[in-house]
# Entry
Amino acid sequence: MTDPCADTGLLGPGWAGSAAAAATGDDAFLRALLDAEVALTRAQAGLGLAPAGAVPAVTRAAEADRFDVAALAERARGGGNPVIPLVADLTGAVGEEYGPYVHRGATSQDILDTAMMLVAVRALGVVLGDLARTEAALARLAREHRDTVLPGRTLTQHAVPTTFGLKAAGWRSLTLDARDRLIRVRDSLPAQLGGAAGTLAAFAAYGAEDPTTLPAAYATELGLAAPLLPWHTLRTPVADLAGCLALTAGALGKMAEDVLALSRTETGELAEGSGGGSSAMPHKRNPVRSTLIAAAARRAPQLAATLYGSLAAVDERPAGAWHAEWEPLRELLRLTGGAARDAAELAEGLRLDPDAMRAHLGLTHGLIVSERLSAELAPLLGRSRAGQLLTELARRSYAEGRGLGELLAEQEELKDLDVAELTDPTHYTGSARALTDRALERT
# Structure
């Protein structure tokens, strides 16, 4: 039977079952907390602050399956964080000889912050893998459809023609923006070690000649960045991480929103590779991947806002600001990880209908190239006359249901123009091809 308190993702289909969910679950956090404790013992032993025998003793005791996560969660209420009961259990498991070297000199925030950074680094590896899949699929779509023309839309209305290749190249550019920022932040996430109030005083009391060397040794053991200072109330690492995660969700959300709009029944220019069903309407193939990504993009900024709010952390350890970070950060990692998974599946399975795109270019009876005609007719007729003529012909096109090209061909003053060429929307995509090719040069 499922643990009644377990969060299995029943209301989080965007992240349920994802690798990011596994990387951020309670078991993953427990593993990270234990890894942080083991690394602390190893770092101190390396500097002669703990006997060599403490390392294997603590390592053997720090097997995650020896600890009851649910019981730790309940006992965490006593001190306000799970590190306190975990240290008690781990110390008991290590035994009398080496137990005193568990958590020695550290404070609970050292371990929990470090564990958060470990979880983030591990989860970001998953996210980056899915972003790589997304980028590769979008690059393929951009190359294959660099000349596939469809209406460009601004403020929901047809604007001028564009190409699907350029649209896909834009989605890919956002994906790469997110990737670059996540890599930069991931590689800068630091270990945390400062002791009770960020002075490293306890380590000096335990015999360290230069306690300031210990944080770097600790970070090396964990594969994290070495902190310049203890950052108990200097929350830049968390804020940077929050911003990158929210940006990533939003970047993927742009693609999702475009797919949602272009896959409407009335539009049908795009379709997800495998749409979802409906409990009431058997005919439906809902764009579920896009829907879940869009949902994540809407939630991420508010979660990031909570983490930004925690920058205002009073004293050397805040009451509440630090505690407010834990769940929003995990949810951000989960949401973004789930969105990255869905984005990869969406991009890899996306189906296009170029015929629908081409047909929609004619919905405005040729008016989609009015910008081009304004530029072409101004030298012939003068800017004022060209504007008046096109305004009048646009009115007649709507009123009479006739194409702009047909009306232009009736104008005696334009009899020498190649009207068919000027009104062909596929011949007015500007630098879309060159821009697409330029975007694809980015690796």
Summary: The two ends are 48 Å apart (CA to CA). DSSP finds 18 helices and four strands in the chain.
